[in-house]
Amino acid sequence: xxxxxxxxxxxxxxxxxxxxxxxxxxxxxxxxxxxxxxxxxxxxxxxxxxxxxxxxxxxxxxxxxxxxxxxxxxxxxxxxxxxxxxxxxxxxxxxxxxxxxxxxxxxxxxxxxxxxxxxxxxxxxxxxxxxxxxxxxxxxxxxxxxxxxx
Length: 150
Hints:
Layout: H1 3-10, E1 16-17, H2 23-33, E2 37-41, E3 47-52, H3 53-63, H4 89-98, E4 103-108, E5 111-117, H5 118-148
Parallel strand pairs: 1-2
Antiparallel strand pairs: 2-3, 4-5
Helix pairs in contact: 4-5
């Protein structure tokens, strides 16, 4: 299964914000939208960073509650790992598990076109395994059915 198939099922909406957005506003958006990450863009839909609940908790632990009045650029993760629409879920599983990432922005021709979570990738991988299992079971059962007709 490819990333594009995941986006076809879940949609390609991505919550974005500018680097100058206050962390308090980011927290409100995460809570209102019931999401765990916001992609920080540089104004032309290219990721400049990403901010997750984990980044906010670390910021609070290191800098205190006053952090909510600071720009998200102070705590966002830069050097964002991304994926392409034609990448396979098996590739993403490895990338996300070993890179300890829960979300990957999807970039196509330099543009942000979606985001996938580790949950999306695992679900896609499970669907792929079920399809393969059904094919194998069908193949194995076919000779048995033919033997009964002989």
